[in-house]
Write a sequence for this structure.
């Protein structure tokens, strides 16, 4: 069975509150997700103080504060990272985080993370890509806002730095929060897989849970989905996130889809074999047939059950002489 890696993206939905972050870990663990992901950054290293907010951030946060001021309240300290890792261990779910600068990557490496996430905004950050490539660890690369050539460039940089392509999973992504359904373009995920020969997945910012489920059916090996304790909470990503019950429903649905995909071989399954004789048909007598009478389309027909001669033998039966007497609905024997 396919085993899709499901990343429950807590992101910055903790609002800088350690206890809220731990509650998000609890929700992710209870949902059955494989990893719970946060974001590791320093506002001082991430954004200029005059940098504007995105429209979705303006619509969901205080319009009078800058992007820098907003992010400054959402930082997680080294100590908070340690606390969250410890809480993840107690809940048997893997801690994961996206680093937005080289120093944050260094911190996650010190914290002994075994895989790393590159956010869409860093896919054109050459020094960042070169540095993370030297880790030679599994990488998940998001590709929102990109052209194929930019994905190819990033993959080449990571490989040249030391990370082989078989350790990289590329996530198709759209970075509008929430993403309009008509902009999802799931087929692009397939294009990425065919173009670059990499494992692919999907990072979802749509409202609802239907699209990531569909992505699994199309071959996603990783699904990432933002979640929150409550969409009405303040914060830039809350409104585009699913609530706990939705996250649990998404995970359950993905696990069902995984089972349904199968091995691709077309053959009767164990569960349906018992129905073959019931649902298929046999050649039977249409009316009384006497010994030595010729079988024609006037005296034989096709009916259930399928325990007799298959109707696929019809042409071989027509014209032969009956070796027995038959009554209507008797299975024809030769």
């Amino acid at each position: 069975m396919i085993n899709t890696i499901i990343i429950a993206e807590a992101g910055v939905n903790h609002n800088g509150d350690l206890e809220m972050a731990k509650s998000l870990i609890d929700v992710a663990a209870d949902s059955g997700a494989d990893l719970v992901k946060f974001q590791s950054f320093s506002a001082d290293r991430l954004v200029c103080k005059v940098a504007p907010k995105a429209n979705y951030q303006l619509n969901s946060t205080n319009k009078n504060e800058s992007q820098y001021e907003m992010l400054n309240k959402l930082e997680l300290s080294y100590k908070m990272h340690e606390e969250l890792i410890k809480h993840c261990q107690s809940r048997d779910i893997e801690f994961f985080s996206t680093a937005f600068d080289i120093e944050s990557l260094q911190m996650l490496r010190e914290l002994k993370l075994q895989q790393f996430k590159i956010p869409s905004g860093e896919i054109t950050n050459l020094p960042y890509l070169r540095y993370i490539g030297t880790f030679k660890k599994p990488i998940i690369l998001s590709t929102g806002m990109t052209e194929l050539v930019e994905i190819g460039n990033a993959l080449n940089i990571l490989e040249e730095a030391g990370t082989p392509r078989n350790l990289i999973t590329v996530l198709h992504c759209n970075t509008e929060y929430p993403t309009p359904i008509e902009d999802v373009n799931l087929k692009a995920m397939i294009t990425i897989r065919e173009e670059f020969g990499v494992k692919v997945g999907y990072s979802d910012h749509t409202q609802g849970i239907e699209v990531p489920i569909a992505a699994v059916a199309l071959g996603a090996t990783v699904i990432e989905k933002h979640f929150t304790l409550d969409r009405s909470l303040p914060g830039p990503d809350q409104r585009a996130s699913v609530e706990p019950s939705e996250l649990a429903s998404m995970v359950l649905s993905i696990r069902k889809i995984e089972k349904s995909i199968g091995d691709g071989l077309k053959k009767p399954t164990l569960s349906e074999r018992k129905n073959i004789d019931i649902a298929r048909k046999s050649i039977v007598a249409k009316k009384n047939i006497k010994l030595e009478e010729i079988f024609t389309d006037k005296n034989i027909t096709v009916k259930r059950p399928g325990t007799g001669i298959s109707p696929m033998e019809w042409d071989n039966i027509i014209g032969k002489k009956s070796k027995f007497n038959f009554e209507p609905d008797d299975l024809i024997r030769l």
Remarks:
- The mean pLDDT is 96.
- The chain has 14 helices and ten strands.
- The longest helix spans residues 244-261.
